[in-house]
Amino acid sequence: MKLYIMKQSAVDYLKENMRTYYINYYRKTDNDWIYELFDYDPFELFMEVPEFKLAPYMEKKGEMDLQNCKIMYTNLMRISESQASDERLWAGLCNSTFYKYCRMRWDYQSKKLKNPDADADAIISRFFFKGTYRSGFYRNTLAKCWWVGHGTYQEIHGNKFELLDALGADDLSTKMTDLFYSNTFASNPTIIKGICKGWKLFTDRGIKLTTREYFRPALQYMNALGGGILLDMLDEDEIKEIFVDYISQLYNKDKGETVFVKTDDSYDDIEDEEDIEVENADIIFMQGNNDAEEVEEKPVQEFGVGIKAVGASQKKDLKEARILNKVMGKPKEIACGCSVILHIVEDDRDVKYDVPKEKNGQDWYAIYNQMLGKSIGESFRMRIKTYIVKDISW
Amino acid sequence: MEIRNRLFPYPVLCLDNDDYVDSSFDVKCTVKEELANLVLDFEFVLSENEELKWLIREGLAEFVIHIECTYTAFRTIVKTSGTSITYRIPKSKVNVEITLVGAIVAAKKISAFRSKHLNEDYQDEDISFERGAILAYSNMPRIFVTKNYEELAGDNAFFTIIRRVKTEQNEHNPVAYDINGPKIKILVDEEIYDEYARYRNNGNMEALTGTLLVMPAVIYMVETLRYEGTDKFKSLYWYQKISKACKLQSVDFEEDLLFSDSKAAVEIAQDLLKLPINRAFEGLARVIEE
Prior knowledge:
The complex is a heterodimer.
Chain A: E1 2-6, H1 8-16, H2 18-27, H3 32-36, E2 43-48, H4 61-75, H5 81-84, H6 87-95, H7 99-105, H8 116-127, H9 134-137, H10 141-152, H11 162-167, H12 172-181, H13 189-203, H14 211-225, H15 236-255, H16 267-280, E3 282-285, E4 299-302, E5 307-310, H17 315-328, E6 339-344, E7 349-354, H18 366-371, E8 379-382, E9 385-393
Parallel strand pairs in A: 5-7
Antiparallel strand pairs in A: 1-2, 3-4, 4-5, 6-7, 6-9, 8-9
Helix pairs in contact in A: 2-8, 4-10, 12-14, 13-15, 14-15, 15-17, 16-17
Chain B: E1 24-33, E2 37-47, H1 50-57, E3 61-69, E4 74-80, E5 84-90, E6 96-106, E7 110-113, E8 127-129, E9 134-145, E10 159-164, E11 176-178, E12 184-189, H2 190-199, H3 203-228, H4 237-248, H5 253-258, H6 265-272, H7 276-289
Parallel strand pairs in B: 10-12
Antiparallel strand pairs in B: 1-2, 2-5, 3-4, 3-6, 6-9, 7-8, 11-12
Helix pairs in contact in B: 3-6, 3-7
């Protein structure tokens, strides 16, 4: 696939005269009209890359953008940051190789004309840079995807875009603008990681938070905090805690709850506790357990106080759980992502369950369906046993 | 990032306030170029402040350099407890300008801090710093990254002439100028542009078109810089290009031309464009002879 840049003189001409030409983006299905404007080739070959396709058209534009962030950055990783900050590159791609795609992304084939100034301005933002450099590249249709992909990509095993997935497709465009465009601290990868992972803590547990009410104010808070301290000095977990802490304050306030508990536990303490628990964990397997077939062959941790845990927690999950318990307070009823201690009446013993974050996934067992929605003190029957909910935490 | 007009809820050693007396903090930076990197050598100078030095020695605070290029979303910090450090930035990661702030930052929470150099307003105050608190700072001069504009491709001039399409049949607009982009834009009506296009490759006409279109643009630029200051334009490609061209002739663009009382804008424009009026008439004479 050949990638073309647009010559500066052509960029300047089209932008300057956009009030005359914007209508073509609505009407013309291909970019022949751009060639016809000049007595020279307005495009110039920049580089050749293996063929790739952007995401197919979707009603949910957030999902489409999310996929495109991954596709653009994965396929154009060779481009340096310096090159990617150049308007000519993105004006070239939006007006040549991906002209049809960009029209389709913004529904220009069916979009109604409104105000000439606003319509022309929108074309400049989406197909060129409105403003220069940073203010431009987080608004251009394709540059935005590359830069957000670049900002969230991690050289790790597994999902290299886990941070982007953590942000999620809902209202992605606004989140991109709020996070990357409005705040320069987002250029620091450690800060981005802390924020994205903090957001994931809530979304993983099915807590629906809107961008306007939670994401944006939390970023504004971090920005204000950056006036007094150098955020770049903090590590990922510290950023995450600040972000989660602030959102939970907003959340609890909105819900009128008073479950917010601020403890003095430092992260060092948390780290120590986890080490002890994991080291002491005596992992056994409940082979052939007739009482609860749903937990067969699941690893169980015994914590030395007569409590067994089903679904051995990762060290990282324990840490997240403690942050959640600290800032959100304990959940009132059992939900996905909770840790639950059940008392088995007939055996007079306690068992700990870690309910998976996703319902009906690979690790989902029938007993989870029974316990969902139950509060402390409530009971349910499973096979021939009675289970009483003793404790619920994140 | 540059720290300007910022109020801190605790004492900070810097040039912008008198929280500390008889004490100073400065960071010197020298820049060298390698083939693919910019090499930045930093030297921290903390004078007459044993208490801040003690915090650094004990690991409670660190010398920090905050490096940022907003043009390429590059942002990082470099930390040390020593008094100097070298950092290499790949050139591909930066463009236009880099801002640098040197600082002393709390690496841990610090309680009951006292210093004999603190302003008397802070005496008897119980001062504590959160982790990340900026205890001292010094804004360093920005580094301008003068890259070849042709990193992708394209022409190299510091100005560009743009044709404005008519929206009405009898529309005639004066030539306009815009100096806010990487290049100085000269906006002309279609008729002017077409004439310019006819002659732009004719060597004899080059100086004439330059005098008619470029010289007023340069005069406009000089007057705007004199009125608005150079700060917001310094990182732009055209500014760097002009500044560099002056330097090659041992002339400081700002001191010797822009802010020199002895020269009018029209004189500076002629200097920068190497006497275009004279050359225009010479060219015109040759055209008539031909």
